[in-house]
Amino acid sequence: MESRTKRHLKGAGQRNDMAKVLVVDDEKSVRMALRKTLERDAHEVLEAEDGDVALSRLADTMVDVVITDILMPGREGIETIQEIRETYGRLPRIIAISGGGQTGKADFLDFTEQFGANRVLEKPISRDQAMRAVREEVEIAQSARESGQRRGR
User: Fold this and answer.
1) Which of 30, 105, 122, 153 has the fewest CB neighbours in a 10 Å radius?
2) What is the 3-state secondary structure of the chain?
3) At what angle are helices 77-88 and 51-60 packed, to 10 degrees?
4) What Rg value do the Cα atoms of the chain yield, rounded?
5) Is pLDDT of 39 > 50?
């Protein structure tokens, strides 16, 4: 039987500019803004309003990049990042985002890298910031995937 990780990665993001991106944020306006921006950049975008929904989507659909808010009700971003890393390893790439809540932006974002986020962005995120970050993370994911295939993985 095929492992969950192999099944998860097989077929995600063929070598081109388009990628599958999962946007996780409890604020619908943030999800919609990121969706609009990333779809303009030719990416397929899935949405989840919290970490539990995100993990459910990942169990069913392969993605190249996850963009997740840190502060959310229910399963918050750090728990979600940890679960993604434990289940799927180094792919998908993870971009953590936060407006900081009551303690300050940098505190939460610095903390997330220790738990497996590949990149952090402070809200509000500009269109250019979002597109550039996703493009760079997709490129890294595709290179890693190709490297693994060359080694027979």
Assistant:
1) 153
2) CCCHHHHHHCCCCCCCCCCEEEEECCCHHHHHHHHHHHHHCCCEEEEECCHHHHHHHHHHCCCCEEEEECCCCCCCHHHHHHHHHHHHCCCCEEEEEECCCCCCHHHHHHHHHHCCCCEEEECCCCHHHHHHHHHHHHHHHHHHHHHHHHCCC
3) 20
4) 15
5) yes
Residue 88 in tokens = 């799927």
What average pLDDT does the segment 33-45 reach?
A: 97
- Distance (Å, whole) CA 95 – CA 97: 7
Through-space distance between the first and last CA atoms of the chain, rounded to whole angstroms: 15
Digit-coded pLDDT (tens) for 54-68: 999 999 999 999 999
Cis peptide before 92 (omega within 30 of 0): yes
pLDDT (0 to 100) of residue 41: 93
